[in-house]
Amino acid sequence: MLTLILLIVAIVGLLAVMRREAGALPALTVLAVTGLASLLFASSLLGVLLLAGAAGVAVAGLPSMRVRWLSPRLFALFKKVAPRVSETERTALEAGTVAWDGELFTGRPDWKRLLDYRDEGLTAQEQAFLDHQCSVAAGMCNAWEIARERADLPQELWDYLKREGFFGMIIPQAYGGLGFSAKAQSLVLQKLSVSETLMVTVGVPNSLGPGELLLKYGTETQKDHYLPRLADGREIPCFGLTGPRAGSDATAIPDTGVVCRQEIDGEEVLGLRLNFEKRWITLAPIASVVGLAFRLFDPDHLLGDESDRGITLALIPRDTAGMEIGRRHHPIGSPFLNGPIRGKDVFVPLDTIIGGPEMIGQGWRMLVECLSIGRCITLPSGATGTARYALGWSGGFARIRRQFNVPVAEMEGVQEPLARMAALAYISRAAVYQTANTIDHGEKPAVPSAILKSQLTEFQRQILGDAMDIHGGKAVTLGPRNYLGIGYSANPVAITVEGANIMTRNLMIFGQGAIRCHPYVLEELAAKDADDLGAFDKAFFGHAGLIFGNAARALTQGLGVGRAEVPFDEVAAPYAKDVARLSAGFGLCADAAMASLGSTLKQREMLSARLGDVLSNLYLASMTLKQWHEGDKVEGEAALLHYGCRFLLGRAEQALDELFDNLPSRALGRLLRIVVMPAGRHWKRPQDALTREIAQAVSRDTALRHYLLETTWQENDGSRDNPLAHYNALLASQERAEELYRRVQKAHAKGELPADALHPEQKVEAALEAGLIAAEDATFMREREAEVLELLTVDDFAYDAFVTDKSKVLRHQAA
Fold first, then answer.
1. 294-310 residue pLDDT tens
2. pLDDT(815) > 60
3. Given a cut of 60, is residue 159 above it in pLDDT?
4. Cα(77)–Cα(71) distance, integer angstroms
5. pLDDT band per the 50, 70, 90 thresholds, residue 88
6. φ, ψ for residue 813 (rounded to 5)?
7. pLDDT mean over 361-376
8. Cβ neighbourhood burial of 256 (10 Å; 0-12, 13-18, 19+)
9. Backbone angles phi, psi at 15, to 5 degrees
10. In a 10 Å sphere around its CB, with 0-12 CB exposed, 13-18 middle and 19+ buried, how is residue 586 labelled?
């Protein structure tokens, strides 16, 4: 019995030391004390084993001993097996900052650090702009007119966007811009997402492009000239990066610039001769100034000794001789302005380089530093706004659309996608807002930008698919009345651009995060490059302590022992504790994958993607918890928090489960499963009761529905009709209507109304004549049914309306 007690004491003591990452000396003490006690009072065998363990810890763990023999050998081995980091990768790794994403890699996330990013809300100017200017702009859009009749925004909308400064949200007021916060930019784009074309048109100039590049790197002359003109729309910018042979691998651009001299107006000018072909460039067809990325060469050494000067960025006026611009692509589902740019022997002076000659060769760094912010805002905000509109439309439609004498919102087959839409919209809103808030606190979230871009646009894909299913024929028949179908067909654009989701998920989130966010990997690689044994020893054994710590934390917390302390209420605390548990498991699995696969992990994209999925879901859950913690809770919101967190944590566990099943070392996979999930998976799919509760709330006039639709366009005072406003008005009177529906339907079923009164309008008139309802009820129902019928109606057109070449129309007899 004493032997068992001492063994348990040794195990518990070691786990406690490991959880705290207390170092070799405390572990040595635990083993030595229990070993001596066992040797003297219990089992000699156990005592010898424990003392041998103590000796091993002393030799390998105490710095004064290990540095003499172990560390040099480990350093030599590390230099052989460590992955080579190219200059391109290093630039990307060094771009941006590490914040909460780094905490999730530690296995012991400090929630205080996340909560310290206080949300100060919007300024009065930002709120007024969101309430007024954004509503006016949204009210000037109709998806069908923009997509099929104009292939562009209306002229009056273009004029309004320029006049009100929509293109200058990121430009400081000193240059004539609005100087908005990241949160305000995000909310503006969410509101404008009622039209995908409008959102893209406003979002791109305020994202990666000339404006942001000039702000950060431009010369004072460039800023003074261009920023005021960009802010008020006198200049429309575009940025040419991608081309026929350089998409996701943007560093492989074949476009070139050569330093040369050319005579202009009788004067010899030092400049660049550019040859390039770009495509998929948003706003290119109408851009007045083109940002261009190219590889610069100086074969005659006019600027210095180097011939290959690297990726460089320039700003070129549209009317520059030799540049072909103005044609357009036809993006799927959306007519946002997008097109190719070509140039043959285009000469520009050196002062067109963004930042001047001293920024030659800095183009890739400039791009990745800007992308860490822009990618956090534009597409994630668009996806979030789309999610909220789709939810508002779908909840309203499901309540007014009746089948089998009941609203389809009462059918569980419809409730399931409706609740899923609500949860994904809730998560998306929290994630993009809270990440924008960290940007306002000075962070440049490189890894979270990849998480948000890929995850939220995938959520958008799911939400739009669910919305289409709920709407049925209403959404598959295009026309001016269809508010959903064009946006649905345009969704692949968001999936593909700014880093295709396949690449982002498989290569970027974990591939970049494993080095950038890990507490020790970057230090180890830096020690290797500097050939610094001391720095390597410190980083490597700190890393080893982290591995043991995460193993102990994952195991004990998985067994329900020593759960993390979290600063949340009783509703959110269980989920925050499990984020901490899974963070420890994730950290352990990340280290195990890197150690067992080494540099080949880059090629094992499916494993890397699963690790990225764990990180992504933990990040999204954290942002959702912070939003709950700081927000004004509304009735029914707790159900969404439960659904959302269970959904995200369940996905994180699923990704870990698949990782264990697919690691090349089956023994390692089985061991990790035991340590990380000793009691199996904790989270299952959200329960049906939650689904029903949420679906009911978002398809009625409730506080939860109002909360989810905040800062969307709900007014009906624009120049275009607003379906969301109509649905909201109908839901506000839904209770009265449902009582009348029940009364009239019951009478019809009993034979108290004529059998041929089949339409709702006929039943109302018959019920009025029979004295079953009052005259004011009949008036109410007549007006309501007219409104409902209009919302259920789809468009039809002339037989040859969609034929662009009328000579090719087949005049069938039936037509």
1. 999 999 999 888 898 99
2. no
3. yes
4. 10
5. low
6. -60, -40
7. 83
8. middle
9. -65, -40
10. buried
DSSP string, 473-512: HHHHS-STT-SSHHHHHHHHHHHHSSS-HHHIIIIIHHHH
Active site residue 498: yes
The per-residue pLDDT for 185 is 96
**Does residue 226 carry a pLDDT above 80?**
yes
Could you tell me which of 579, 569, 553 has the C-alpha nearest to residue 648? Answer: 579
Cα–Cα dist 673/681, whole Å = 10
Per-residue pLDDT for 247 more than 80?
A: no
How distant, in Å, are the alpha carbons of 75, 408, 554 from that of 402? 71, 6, 50
Q: Which two tokens stand for residue 488?
A: 């649905």
Average pLDDT over the chain reads 90
Please give the distance of CA 224 from its chain centroid, rounded to a whole number. Answer: 34
Is residue 434 within 8 Å of residue 177, measured between CB atoms? no
Residue 36 burial by Cβ neighbours in a 10 Å radius (0-12, 13-18, 19+): middle
HEC string for 72-99: HHHHHHHHHHCCCCCHHHHHHHHCCECC
Nearest to 38 by CA among 28, 25, 26, 51: 51
3-state secondary structure of 268: strand
Separate counts of helices (H) and strands (E) for the chain = 34, 9
Identified catalytic residue from 498, 523, 637, 765: 498
3-state secondary structure of 240: strand
Residue 290 is predicted with a pLDDT of 95
pLDDT for 498 equals 83
pLDDT higher than threshold 90 for residue 372:
no
CB neighbour burial string for 329-354, b if at least 16 within 10 angstroms, e if fewer: bebebbbbbbbbbbbeebbbebebbb
Alpha-carbon span 36 to 417, nearest angstrom:
63
Tens digits of per-residue pLDDT, 571-584? 999 999 999 999 99
Predicted confidence (pLDDT) at residue 519 exceeds the cutoff of 80? yes
SS3 519: coil
112: part of which helix (H) or strand (E)? helix 111-115
Of the candidates 420, 387, 435, 390, the residue with the CA atom closest to the CA atom of residue 620: 435
pTM of the model: 0.94
- CA 624/CA 345 separation, integer angstroms: 52
pLDDT of residue 804: 83
Higher-confidence residue of 97 and 399: namely 399
DSSP for 28-59, please give it.
Answer: HHHHHHHHHHHHHHS-HHHHHHHHHHHHHHHH
| Largest separation between any pair of C-alpha atoms in the chain | 105
Q: What is the mean pLDDT of residues 146-163?
A: 93
Q: Is 289 helix (H, G, I), strand (E, B) or coil?
A: strand
Of the candidates 636, 704, 634, 648, which has an alpha carbon nearest to the alpha carbon of residue 428?
Answer: 648
Long-range contacts formed by 611-614: CB under 8 A, 24+ apart: 611/510, 611/514, 611/586, 611/655, 611/659, 612/505, 612/506, 612/508, 612/509, 612/510, 612/511, 612/513, 613/505, 613/651, 613/652, 613/655, 614/582, 614/586, 614/589, 614/652, 614/655, 614/656, 614/659
470 within 8 A of 397, measured Cβ to Cβ: yes
| Close Cβ partners of 432 (under 8 Å, ≥ 6 residues apart) | 186, 190, 376, 377, 380, 381, 384, 452, 456
As a whole number of angstroms, the distance between CA 175 and CA 577 comes to 47
- Cβ proximity of 17 and 30 under 8 Å: yes
Average pLDDT of span 468-490: 94
In sequence order, the β-bridge partners of residue 541 are none
